[in-house]
Amino acid sequence: MTTAQRGRWVTLVGLVLLAGVYVRALAFTPLESSQGPAQKIFYVHVPAAWSAMLAMALVGIASILFLIMRDYRYDRFAAASAEVGTAFSLVMLTTGPIWAKPIWGTWWTWDARLTLTLFLFFLFVGYLLLRGAVLETSLRARYSAVLGICGLVLLPFIHLSVYLFRTLHPQPVVLKPSAPSLPESMLITLLASFVVFTVLYIGFVMQVYGVATEQDALGEA
Amino acid sequence: MTDLLRHAWVIARKDLVLEFRTRTAFLSAVVFTALVLTVFNFGRDPTSVPTIDLAPSILWVTFTFAAMLGLNRAFQLELENDALDALLATPISRGSLYLAKFVANCVFVGVVECVGLPLFVLFFNVPVWSILGPLVGVIALATVGFVAVGTLFSAMVIRTRFAELMLPVLLLPFLIPPLVGAVQVTAALLAARPLSEVAGWLRLLAAYDIVFLALATVLFPATVNE
User: Could you give the CA distance from residue B160 to residue A135 in angstroms, rounded to a whole number?
Assistant: First the structure.
């Protein structure tokens, strides 16, 4: 079985688990008292954001590894991760406003994390555009590695610069110095959705990576 | 170290002499700056928004676009007659080459800003005389940040399709932190607020310059080596 085919199975498992998480989120997780049903989107939005961030971090790391080892597998992985990251950041950017309209009363606001994720999306898109605009393989790999590394370094700066404005976004509820402030049943659903989105990320990347590997092999043959 | 600086200076001087003798790129950038400032004048309602509130944004959006125009040119001119290959064949380090292009770009953008700032003061009637020192300082800080990343990216985009469009698409996200910082500090200066209020922004600008200058120096060889 090729990587792409294995990836398809992983994705399938991820999708089934996603359905499971949603059954749990809708039927077996209590309603949030102040936000009501709107809060349910949390179980897609937050893990999608997690997968997008993970994708960007791995693009950066794979880019560093490529520049050191000059192994094209890292380049293909970075490209696959960026493509999948674009999809996840789009999910995050569409679910966010849907939630924000009833809760904040506005579709969009220039809050710290919103801006950060918007730029995450722009970085992914720029990365893919650059790959599309360079025809030569070795040049494309080096250029996109340079951009990938710069992107990874840029994100903390964007975060810092927009953080200096006042932020409207809900403060962290899980990853923070004190104990998670989420009730246990919600926390379990959220953690399950994190796992599922990570599985989906792996499945998608395996498919894109596998196809790219086969394409390269065909190109060389 | 002295070799690095000496080589860098030789190449930077070559670029600047070339620029000074032809003056086309420089004049275009200056005219472009003047035009953007004019466009801003008509792109607002002067009766409802006081100029002073818009001034920092006008200044920085104009400088950002002008810088981008200048950066596109840095490596473009090396493509003619394959000058870049000759440059790469000379026994100088890639570090000096990056530094040279960085310095030449800083001078280019700096000179355009030197013309842009008085025009901005003239067109929008902004009193800057009492804050000229700190204002020039923050312009320098932000410009170094713009040019550090821009020089690196312009070395890449020249060999892509749609190079003129690719540079802004890749570069603009990277200009956001220095842009936000510069606008905040400029706003504080124009409102005669103390600099201590914007110390965080100044630190951010300085950190950005240092980090990206170092990163670009490390990554630059990967963009030009064959």
Answer: 8
Other beta carbons within 10 Å of A2: 13
CA-CA distance, A161 to B105, in Å (whole number)?
25
pTM for this model (two decimals): 0.88
Domain count, chain B: 1
Q: Which residue among A67, A157, A164 places its CB closest to the CB of B201?
A: A164
Domain boundaries, given as residue ranges, for chain A: 3-27+41-170+181-214
Q: Taking CB atoms and an 8 Å limit, are B173 and A153 in contact across chains?
A: no
Contact B215 A147 (CB under 8 A): no
CA distance A111 to chain B (A): 14
pLDDT in tens, A82-100: 999 999 999 999 998 888 8
Q: Which domain holds residue B213?
A: 2-224
Between chains, do B200 and A158 touch, taking CB under 8 Å as contact?
no
Report CA torsion sign: A104, A108, A109, A115: positive
How does pLDDT run across B151-209, given as a tens digit for each residue?
Answer: 999 999 988 888 788 999 999 999 988 998 999 899 889 888 888 888 888 999 999 99
For position A154, what pLDDT does the model report? 92
ipTM: 0.89
In this predicted model, what pLDDT tens digit does every residue of A137-173 receive, in sequence order?
Answer: 899 999 999 999 999 999 888 878 777 755 445 555 5
